[in-house]
Amino acid sequence: MIVGTSGMFRRGRADFPSVLPLRAGWRRLGDDEGSATAEYAIATMAAVGFAGLLVVILKGDEVRGILTDLVTRALTAAG
């Protein structure tokens, strides 16, 4: 098998294009396969954890009182 200057392999009389660079490109793209899904999963788990933390904080009586006062002041100032 002889490699020509045009990037073609020659075997006997038949010339055909080299597929090695194309396959190497497929391998490079294959390394990142599924990374977007993993990133979405990590972001979703972080959001769920943050939501759980907010639920725990907002269940406290002190925070509930602060929020109630805030809403009451906003409604009396608007009306």
Provide key terms for this protein.
79 residues, alpha+beta, 3 helices, 3 strands, membrane
Question: Can you give me a brief rundown of this structure?
Answer:
This protein is an alpha+beta fold and 79 residues long.
Radius of gyration: 31 Å
The pLDDT mean sits at 76
Largest sheet: 3 strands, antiparallel
Termini, distance in Å? 88 Å
Helix content: 55-70%
What best-fitting shape do the alpha-carbon axes yield?
elongated
Strand content: 5-15%
Number of beta strands: 3
Strand line-up of the largest beta sheet: 1-2-3
Query: Which structural category fits the helices and strands?
Result: alpha+beta
List SSEs in N-to-C order. Answer: EEEHHH
